[in-house]
């Protein structure tokens, strides 16, 4: 699949001397949902801001659908919609005025029918004459999305779209993102909620300390880096893990009734069979057994921790 | 050229003025009327005329300039500072608009508002004193040039300012004193020799003098010099704005 966004060798050092990005290379494929994960201060927002033209980069090149963001900034920027992390709206404008303003700002002719559709899709139509300042936090977030969608972008950046949003609205947003993808819009989202990436993303990128440390298909990533857990419910609680089992990565629950074995599911010999054999031989009986896959969150935490 | 963007920004700025009509239009009209009461009636009863012009009529061009300068600066500086302050400037910076378009829209909006205001003050003044405008073309030229120049200056202040305090600093500490000392309420020929020379370093003197000439055909300094100084200040502001956008000063860094 051809890439719609190409970031090559992008670095950013702020006037304060802080280096936010180091030689970042990233290609986003057309029509995919890409989740950019990273701890606070990793460089996610700086990277998005550079692509959108809000922050000047120190070096490197960025092209959007083949258009250089500097030399051909009009073509590049007109393809991009941005929903920033902060709720930053002109508080005294009406919903209708501010969304139409965004459309005009991006050079699109007035299209009341389209703007109405966007507002209806985001359950904002009833509030079209309300001033932004009177909206609830969740509605302001929808308004930010409406402004970004008003000019029909082909690439949509969602910077922490569901931060501070209730569960219902989060589900609505996920549904909206999927609808947009069906319409061919490429979506790049940054998030702290790993479940969001897990539920929606096609690919995941992890950024830490200004460097992209991994870009991988989500399913592949979970398969490769995923760890499994074997949970054994013991018939008789233990006070401590017997010495004979020290070679296994075992954890005993505080009440002594549950034994957890964590193992690498890619390993040639995960050790599950031998553990069960050894437990039987040692007279440790269990009444139930369960296995769990590690979540993207655990994979992410492990990746970031692994960095020096 | 992204004319739709220019229009969108311009319309938004004008809508703000009409939304805050009390602050934008009514309050300067009231304060101008008060100037007439205080300066025109109280002082005017003692100074009957200057250069053959009745004192009440003499101060009209100066009063219009006073409002034009302060309002152009405050309109433009607030217009660009407010989105910076609330963060909504992200949208402007990420939009497919050129620097020139941003300046045309914001400065155009601010200048339009202050020109409308200048004309309202002119109409208000005509209720108090009989007015003559000998050179209407030049009157409008000075009005537009000054409004555009000081809106540009306000735009620069709005980008430079990091706080509301800084936003008020330049208009309050520099522009208002320069306007009061720039011959709004007197002819600089009335000053003693040394102060007359000092006053010539005040750029506002040239604006007021040229503007007054367009009304009554009388000026403190030659009208060519007045026009020249206005254009020089305009070019200085354009140069600074161009530098701001080229470097991303306080916008993209």
UniProtKB/TrEMBL annotation, chain A:
Pfam families: ABC_tran
Protein known as: ABC-2 type transport system ATP-binding protein
Keyword field: ATP-binding, Nucleotide-binding, Transport
InterPro entries given in the database record: AAA+_ATPase, ABC_transporter-like_ATP-bd, ABC_transporter-like_CS, ABC_transporter_ATP-binding, P-loop_NTPase
Residue ranges constituting the ABC transporter domain according to the UniProt record: 5-234
SMART domains: AAA
Similarity remark: Belongs to the ABC transporter superfamily.
Annotated organism of origin: Rhizobium loti (Mesorhizobium loti)
SUPFAM superfamilies: P-loop containing nucleoside triphosphate hydrolases
A GO term for molecular function: ATP hydrolysis activity
Automatic annotation (TrEMBL), chain B:
Lineage: Bacteria, Pseudomonadati, Pseudomonadota, Alphaproteobacteria, Hyphomicrobiales
Protein name: Transport permease protein
Compartment(s) where it occurs, according to its Swiss-Prot or TrEMBL record: Cell inner membrane; Membrane
DNA-binding recorded as keyword: no
Bilayer-crossing regions: 21-43, 55-82, 115-133, 140-161, 167-186, 198-215, 221-245
InterPro entries from the UniProt entry: ABC-2_transport_permease, ABC2_TM, ABC2_TM_bact-type, ABC_2_transport
Keywords, alphabetical: Cell membrane, Membrane, Transmembrane, Transmembrane helix, Transport
Domain of life, per lineage: Bacteria
Family the UniProt entry places it in: Belongs to the ABC-2 integral membrane protein family.
Source species of the chain: Rhizobium loti
Bilayer topology annotation: Multi-pass membrane protein
GO molecular function terms attached to this record: ABC-type transporter activity
GO CC terms in record: ATP-binding cassette (ABC) transporter complex
Domain ABC transmembrane type-2 residue range list: 19-248
